[in-house]
Design brief:
The protein is about 10% helix and about 30% strand. With about 325 residues, it is mainly β.
Length: about 325
Amino acid sequence: VDEASKPGTPNIPYSEEEFQPVGPAPGFADARPATASRPSTAKSLGPNNPYPDFPSLNEKEELEEFALRPAPQNKDIKCRITRDKRGLDRGMYPTYYLHLEREDHKRVFLLAGRRRKKSSTSNYLISADPTDLSRDGESYVGKVRSNLVGTKFTIYGSGLNPMKPAKAGPDGLVTYREELAAVVYSTNVLGFKGPRKMTILIPGMTGDHERVEIRPEIEQQSILERHKRGEVANILELHNKTPVWNDDTQSYVLNFHGRVTQASVKNFQIIHDNDPDYIVMQFGRVSDEVFTMDFRYPLCALQAFAIALSSFDGKIACE
């Protein structure tokens, strides 16, 4: 359900600026943006670049390293996701483009994602090349895979699946893929369609602010299985912020400070329970096919984009 909240539909979270309904944000037209088919070629990260180690993103390797680098502390990384449904099969398998929003309003392409067609579960491939979204492509950087009912998602980096025959690299070593996060959607307490409940599990951070590597070789070592057993060392648990009921609008509300302007059950903010005022990530709709996605430390662009992709999927079991 992705329509604005109205009296009589109290179950849809309402996205608003300073808790006041507003129109489309400046610069966001309802028409399909040109970036849907041809992402921006701008590569400089522009003035006030939040990533001083990356003055520009001119090479594929830089894009991939950037996508996996945790956001700098005390910086808000503002991005936009464009959904492209054009084409014979893109109604069911749209392509999603992630752009970094520069302060001069130009955009820098970061990542693209698309749901795989021949997969028994929801499975999204993520690439640093908007024209090559294949599993064997040189720009493949990660994937999102759900369970059968679409309520649990695991986010992987590139690398080998330990459940398949291993191929050693040139150095003779086998590098299994890194688990970057897991997302769990659960039934909301109201018992009908309404604000979603999300649990996000990510690897912890070292004292040098680097992500702890988690590379399971068997299923029991995965983030989801470790969390289920209560083995939470080096795992950080986050949740979506609970919307507040607004009597005036007869809806649930979150304050996105103008970054989200249309109501949708997909809109969310991610926090840690110990610091609910620190928004680790927020995501929401601004027009039919455009969404904003902002994130902070300790998330990286790939983690945030993959969490957003999971929210596009249908959660039959928890809605």
